[in-house]
Design a protein that fits this description.
single chain; 531 residues; mainly alpha; 2 domains; six-stranded mixed sheet; 24 helices; 6 strands; 68% helix
């Protein structure tokens, strides 16, 4: 958030700054700033002089609210309603959604990054867990119903569906996943600048003066990071204030690329699953590869394009994280971008004079850290370590990969219906265990391997066609790795089949892949930070 900005942000001008709150006789007792104090400090004539900036910085650095009701929060689902309308600049009276709060999560973000990437990332962070759990549970229930039900009126229909590999569970689970992903009502209390700071001039000014108190009241901070974040002065201030006001700060940092990347991966996996249904259907009909090969080629081409885009964006992200290290190692407070300075401290819309963000933030930082040099040292060491450790592993985590790939399980659930229904329970359980093995083991191993390779191959190549070739080789590496795992599974199955039932072989494969995934993901942070 910025004090000012060409996107939405509160602007403090002469008129708004000169309007104080009503007198509050209990302010001193409750630890808030008294209105009388505020009224005198925000005198209109003082606004044009350095005294006003001094007083404003003093108010912010004390981290006290002008009144208890000014510290507010909204629920996550309210902040994300209408596909993140508040972030997309849609005009509405958002302030009425907020309520006074004592504890909440502070959402820190730059208004100069991609809005849609930010919104999709928020959906994945807050709704993907519920969507994956609900869809997997419902798909399992549908599988059990189709496998064991003997309703006479449905007997013929269910038998036909199970024999022809029709994606019943897949369709039901996909619809459930989409609905839960969009409409899940997460109740967590959060502070979002546009929703929790009023548009009225008086309350807007009070909200800004109480920003220190709001940050102090926040028990955690969610940073939606993009490459513009560390360049914005007010973003730097928010992180500095949060680190200063919390002995053990709970910082949660996600890149805004997370949402688009997970969405693209989900689409590519769904296309691959579609290919599995097509080949299974033609095989059950007794048709050879010549019949389903064209469908496979079309789906594989589309999926390959999606995975190629993912490889490109992942390599670019790894470069941005590397550049972040160089930027913060050379961080200077005076280099941070402040919109008010770029317009000469005059509101281009109204012509009113604007407070200098840089002067206010500088005085706050001097109050908290002793001097600007000490703050810059903190950014170059502590903040850099926090950002680098979070961002190196935030794009691909085991939890996020599992949330983005439940469609793998849905396919195997559909394929298990036929064998179980016709009495071959052993094969049905084997297919179920394979579904869990690929969902919770193989796919996370693939994603981690590909991300590690993207990290190692992050350097941009010249000419551009060579750089594209590197991304293409990354996709080919993923395909080869998948083929190797599938071949290993087939070899294991054929070797153990003479001694063990199908279900036992499935259990061995499932436990082996999940164990390997757990081992690799536990070593992920060390591997990436070392490189």
């Amino acid at each position: 958030m910025d004090l000012h900005g060409d996107e939405w942000a509160p602007k403090v001008s002469l008129d708004s700054a000169s309007k104080g709150s009503e007198d509050d006789p209990d302010a001193e007792r409750t630890g808030e700033i008294s209105s009388a104090d505020m009224g005198s400090s925000l005198d209109a004539t003082a606004f044009l002089h350095e005294d006003f900036t001094e007083k404003l910085a003093e108010i912010l650095s004390l981290m006290k609210a002008t009144q208890p009701e000014i510290v507010r929060s909204v629920r996550v689902f309210q902040a994300m309603r209408s596909f993140g309308a508040a972030f997309r600049g849609v005009e509405s009276d958002y302030y009425t959604l907020s309520q006074p709060a004592h504890k909440m999560q502070f959402w820190s973000h730059s208004w100069h990054g991609s809005t849609w990437a930010k919104v999709i990332t928020l959906y994945f962070i807050h709704n993907a867990t519920a969507a994956a759990a609900l869809s997997a549970t419902l798909a399992f229930c549908v599988t059990m119903f189709l496998s064991v039900s003997r309703v006479p009126s449905l007997e013929h229909i269910v038998s036909t569906l199970s024999v022809r590999a029709v994606p019943c569970c897949f369709v039901v689970a996909l619809m459930t996943h989409v609905l839960a992903f969009i409409f899940w009502r997460r109740q967590k209390a959060v502070f979002v600048d546009r929703l929790c700071i009023s548009d009225s001039e008086k309350l807007k000014a009070e909200g800004l003066f109480s920003m220190g108190a709001i940050l102090k009241s926040s028990d955690s901070m969610l940073v939606l990071w993009d490459k513009t974040y560390q360049q914005r002065l007010w973003c730097t201030f928010e992180m500095a204030a949060f680190l200063h006001s919390h002995r053990e700060p709970d910082l949660i940092i996600y890149p805004t690329l997370l949402g688009p990347l997970m969405a693209a991966g989900n689409v590519a996996l769904i296309l691959a699953c579609g290919g599995a249904y097509v080949s299974a259907h033609f095989s059950l009909e007794g048709m050879g590869p010549s019949f389903y090969l064209p469908f496979w080629l079309i789906l594989a081409s589309i999926a390959a394009l999606v995975f190629f885009s993912i490889a490109e964006e992942t390599r670019r992200y790894c470069r941005e994280v590397e550049n972040l290290s160089h930027e913060l190692q050379n961080f200077r407070f005076d280099d941070a971008v402040a919109w008010c300075c770029s317009v000469g401290h005059v509101d281009p819309d109204s012509g009113a004079p604007l407070i200098c963000d840089r002067a206010v933030v500088r005085k706050c930082i001097c109050s908290w850290f002793g001097c600007v040099d000490e703050f810059e040292r903190s950014v170059r060491t502590e903040v850099l370590d926090v950002l680098k450790s979070h961002l190196s592993t935030a794009l691909v985590s085991y939890r996020r990969v599992v949330e983005a790939s439940p469609c793998i399980l849905w396919v195997f659930l559909d394929f298990s219906v036929g064998p179980i229904r016709h009495g071959n329970v052993d094969t049905g359980i084997w297919l179920l265990l394979r579904g869990f093995a690929y969902w919770l083991g193989v796919v996370p191993i693939l994603f981690l391997s590909l991300y590690t390779m993207a990290h190692l191959l992050r350097r941009s190549r010249r000419p551009r066609c060579v750089d594209k070739l590197v991304s293409l080789l990354l996709v080919c590496f993923g395909v080869c790795l998948f083929v190797c795992i599938a071949a290993l599974e087939e070899t294991l199955f054929r070797f153990l089949l003479r001694w063990l039932p199908d279900a036992a072989i499935g259990a061995i494969f499932c436990s082996g892949t999940m164990g390997l995934a757990a081992l690799l993901w536990n070593r992920q942070p060390c591997l990436l930070l070392r490189n």
